[in-house]
Amino acid sequence: MATLGDFFDQPRVADGASDLFRDVFGTENLPVRLVIGVASLPLGLPVELEVIFEVKG
Fold first, then answer.
1. First-to-last C-alpha distance (Å) of the chain
2. Could you tell me if 18 and 49 are in contact, meaning their C-beta atoms sit under 8 angstroms apart?
3. Under DSSP, is residue 2 helix (H, G, I), strand (E, B) or coil?
4. Rounded distance between C-alpha atoms, residue 49 and residue 47, angstroms
5. How many CB atoms neighbour CB 15 within 10 A?
6. How far apart are CA 5 and CA 22, in angstroms?
7. Coil, helix or strand at residue 38
8. Contact indicator for 39, 1 with CB cutoff of 8 Å
9. Which of 6, 10, 52, 53 has its CA 20 to 30 A from that of 29?
C-alpha cells in the first residue's frame, strides 16, 4: 500500500479487501493477510493485492 511515512492505519484500509472476500466467498475460508506500507508502487497504484485462489471442481 502506497502511504506517507506518518500513516499507520494500513490494516484498516486493507479491511475493505477482507470485507469483499468475506462477502463473495463467505466466512468459512477467510484469507491470511499481510499489509505493508511503502513509499510507492509500480504504475502509481495506491494498493497492490497478491491473491492465490484454489478452484475446486
1. 33
2. no
3. strand
4. 7
5. 14
6. 30
7. strand
8. no
9. 10
The strand pairing partners of 38, in sequence order, are 2
The residue count of the chain comes to 57
Whether 19 contacts 40, CB under 8 Å:
no
| DSSP-assigned letter for residue 30 | P
Total-model pTM = 0.68
* Residues 21-53: tens digit of each pLDDT: 899 988 887 878 899 999 999 999 999 988 888
Residue 2 one-letter amino acid: A
Rounded to whole angstroms, the Cα distance separating 9 from 14 reads: 9
Asked if residues 22 and 31 have their Cβ atoms less than 8 Å apart, the reply is no
